[in-house]
Amino acid sequence: MDYEDKYDVSGREVPEDDSADLVADSTAAESLSADDMAEHSAVDASADDDSEDLAPTCCKKDYCRGKLHSFNWLADIPGGFADSEYVEVQFKNTRRGYYRNSIHIPLEVGDIVAVEASPGHDIGTVTLMGDLAELRMRRSLGRNGNIADIRRVFRKAKPVDIEKYEEAKSREHDTMIRSRRIAEELNLDMKIGDVEYQGDGNKAIFYYIADERVDFRQLIKVLAETFKVRIEMKQIGARQEAGRIGGIGPCGRPLCCSQWMTNFVSVATSAARYQDISLNPQKLAGQCAKLKCCLNFEVDAYVEATKRMPPRDVRLETADATYYHFKSDIFNRLVTYSTDKNIAANLVTIPAKRVFDIIAMNKAGEKPLSLLAEGDETPKAKSEFGDILGEDDDLARFDKKKRKKKKNNQPQGGAQKYKNRYHRKPGDNNGHNDPTPTNNG
Q: Omega of the bond prior to 119 within 30 degrees of 0, cis?
C-alpha cells in the first residue's frame, strides 16, 4: 500500500493527519499570492484559442490512447444524463487526479489544462469526462472521502504554462540521478525510482522504494537546499515502479500495470496451481520480480471449471488394473489416468462423464472391464489438417549423421607390418618395382 511520510524543512514531523501533504518548504517556493489566485480564476478567451492550437492534432477529436486509457461508455447517452462537472486529469506516467470544472470551461478529452495544486498549479491532460469520471472519482475517494476537497480546473494551458512545464520536465532525469547520489552519501537504504516536477516547477515528487521505514528527514533538507523546490516523498512498491517505468512483457504486449491497471491485487502461487502451471519462479515472475498480475485474470474460470471435474484423489478400479489420476484438461473435460501412482504408465484418456460413471460403479461394488466405454475403442479419425510430424518422423531426420570410421580387424603389430610390406604376392605392386629384400645375414 502506498503511503506518504511528511516532514517540514527543519526535519520535524508535521503533527497532522497521515493523509496530509508532505512538503518541505524552501526559499524558492512560496504559497500563492492574491494576484496568482486572481490570475488562476480569470479565464482568458485568447489564451484558450492559443491552447487549442498548441494541443496535438490527435488530441482534438480522436484522442490518442495512452496509459490508463478508459472508454467512456456513458458519453453517448442522450438527454444530458452523462453530463458532469468532474473531469479526470492524467499527469506523468500513471499519476492522475479528479478535478471540478466549476466555471464550465468547454473541455474535450485530450485538452491540456492547468489545475489547482498545493501550492501553485499543475499541468495535465484530460482523459475522461462526464458521469463516468464522477463515478470513478467517488470510488477513489471511498466512504470516508469528502467531495468538497476536490480541487478546481483553472483554465486551458497557455503557451507560457507549456514552456514552464517542458522546462520542468527536462530537469527530472538529472534530478533523479543527483538525488540517488545524495541518498547514497547519507547511507539510506532506499532507491529513488522516479522524479516528477509539478507543472509550474515549484514542487518535485520523489518516488522511492524501501523494504523498511526510512528516516529521510536529513535527505529532505539536502534536497530542498540543492534543488530549491518543495519536496514530496512517496513510497511505492515494486509493482508501482514497474507501472511507472513501463516495458514489454513476455507476451509481447506493453505491461498491464502501465497501460490499464489502476489497483494491484495480491497474487498467490495457488493461482498457478489451479491453472496447472509449472511453479518455475523465473517464468511466474514479472519485470517487478513479483508474481505476474495476469495469473489472476483467468483463475476464476479455472476454479469454476474445476468444480465440474471429478476429484483427483479418487482411484478407478477396473477388472484388469487400478488407475490413478495423472492430468486433467478441464476445458475439454478430459481426464488422463495411469496404472502407476508416481510415473506415467499405460495412460488412458477418458471423458469426465465416463469417470463419474466408473466412480458410481465402484461405489456399488462393480468393476468395468476397462476405462474406455464399449464404443470408444475405435481409433480416432484423422484430422483434416493432417499431422505435420508423423509417428515415424523424427525431429533430427534431416541432420547429417556422423559416419563411423572403419576399423581394421587385423592386428597391426611389428611383425605383421613387416609381412604386409615386404612379402607381397606377385601382381600386388600396383605398378611399382619394389624388389623384395634378400637376407644377407
A: yes
| Cα–Cα distance for residue pair 361/355, rounded to 1 Å | 10
Q: What is the distance between the alpha carbons of residues 154 and 47, in angstroms, rounded to a whole number?
A: 12
- Given this model, what pLDDT does residue 153 score? 92
Amino acid of residue 225: E
Q: State the DSSP H helix or E strand holding residue 305, giving kind and residue range, or none if neither.
A: helix 299-307
**DSSP secondary structure, 317-379, as one string:** E-SS-EEEEEEEETTTTEEEEESSSSS--S-EEEEHHHHHHHHHHHHTT---S-SS-TT--SP
Instruction: Give the position of cell 519462479.
Output: 281
Those residues whose C-beta lies under 8 Å from the C-beta of residue 391, and which sit 6 or more positions away, are: none
Report the interhelical angle of 172-185 vs 159-170 (nearest 10°): 40
CA 221 to chain centre: 35
pTM of the model: 0.57
Q: What is the pLDDT of residues 235-266, one digit of tens each?
A: 888 888 888 888 898 889 888 888 888 778 88
Cell (9 digits) for 75: 458519453
Q: What is the pLDDT of residues 296-339, one digit of tens each?
A: 998 999 999 888 899 988 899 998 889 999 988 888 899 999 98
CA 303 to chain centre: 23
Per-residue pLDDT averaged across 1-18, rounded? 40
Q: Which residue has the higher pLDDT, 403 or 138?
A: 138
Which grid coordinates belong to 335? 481426464
Give the closest residue to 235 by CA, choosing from 8, 52, 18, 55.
18
Q: How many helices (H) and strands (E) does the chain have?
A: 13, 13
